[in-house]
């Protein structure tokens, strides 16, 4: 049985959206296909009439500085982000996350937009983008809008994108400024090639011996990619001393909902790992920001 009947390689976002609307049967967007092809082949998704490839749209495969922000097209491959000095300067946590996802073959085709659109609470690229305060640009045939990344998720594997009507065009990230830095770390099973047991990204701004501002994202810390606002509040305007980090960890363990997942880890183990990841990423970002 064919998993699709037609494969379209549009040149513009409008062409892709028009194809989605006009197709006589079900249609689906495809970027790297690393998630989607497995879903189709293993029957988690029924066969479709048309696949609409986003990697032929120049606007979506651009990585550049754009009017005071870093723009990363949704169809940019993870390996390109990992190798980009521009991304390294402005979005270190994202580069670190992209470098860890899958293996080289996966990273060469998998895209940041696919990572976000799949809406998994522990997706590595998504967690880094969340800590970096990224905004997503969404296109429909009617308009374009920008939303904070966190506003995109409604449940495990579910985004707020209107299926068949909307797509992610790209992501906008604030540029690096003095005494700001970020870091990303994750814990994987030794033989693991898919999602991590736990990951954590930190972005912070340092003012002499204090944290002037901080953002922390953890995955999986709940049903959607999780931003640890209460933990951030516990660290704001503090020096990252052992005591301050320990109090912040208590807050993180209260606000995050670590759960047991049969294939990866128990909730207790994840709570244990959260301590190490919070301490390490905070320390790395703090040193970098100095
Ligand atoms: C062996 C292996 C290892 C992996 N390891 C990791 C890992 O370590 N960490 C991790 O986070 N993930 C991992 N993944 C998951 C996957 O590779 C990533 O989530 C990847 O970034 C998905 O991107 P893609 O371009 O391949 O998406 P696709 O498979 O092309 O698409 C995924 C979904 O997103 C939709 N979509 C894609 N682009 C857009 C867009 N621009 N707008 C709207 N919808 C869109 C598609 O319709 C589809 O529903 C792994 C996968 C494999 C197979």
Topology of helices and strands:
Layout: E1 4-8, H1 13-22, E2 27-30, H2 36-41, E3 48-53, E4 63-66, E5 69-73, H3 78-83, H4 85-90, H5 92-100, H6 104-109, H7 112-117, H8 124-131, E6 135-139, E7 144-148, E8 153-155, E9 158-159, E10 167-174, E11 180-187, E12 198-207, E13 210-219, E14 226-227, H9 229-235, H10 242-255, H11 267-289
Parallel strand pairs: 1-3, 2-3
Antiparallel strand pairs: 4-5, 5-10, 6-7, 6-10, 8-9, 11-12, 12-13, 13-14
Bound molecules: flavin-adenine dinucleotide.
The site of flavin-adenine dinucleotide (FAD) has 31 residues, from strand 2, helix 2, helix 7, helix 8 and strand 10.
Q: What oligomeric state do the depicted chains represent?
A: single chain
Distance between the termini: 58 Å
Strand order of the largest sheet: 4-5-10-6-7
Work out the helix count: 11
CATH topology of the largest domain: Uridine Diphospho-n-acetylenolpyruvylglucosamine Reductase, domain 3
> Structural class of the secondary elements?
alpha+beta
Strand content: 25-35%
Q: Using DSSP, what is the number of strands?
A: 14
The bound ligands are: flavin-adenine dinucleotide
Based on the coordinates given, report the CATH architecture of the largest domain: 2-Layer Sandwich
